[in-house]
Design goal:
alpha+beta; YpzH; single chain; globular; about 35% strand; about 60 residues; 4 strands
């Protein structure tokens, strides 16, 4: 079962939940932050194509 370990988004008003949430200014920062977190957390980044990327641990 996969687990969401972090969320990176440009939309502060539409994100919530139990995982750590990182709000960034633009799409470029969103990609940079999510790819860095992907390496740090040993997780997979999945772009939801709505200004949000989730990082998922598939272990």
């Amino acid at each position: 079962m996969a687990k969401i370990v972090a969320v990176v988004s440009t939309k502060a008003d539409s994100i919530g939940g139990g995982a750590p949430i990182f709000i960034v200014e633009n799409e470029e920062k969103m990609e940079q932050t999510s790819f860095l977190l992907e390496k740090i957390l040993d997780a997979s980044a999945h772009d939801l194509k709505n200004g949000t990327i989730i990082l998922v641990n598939h272990r």
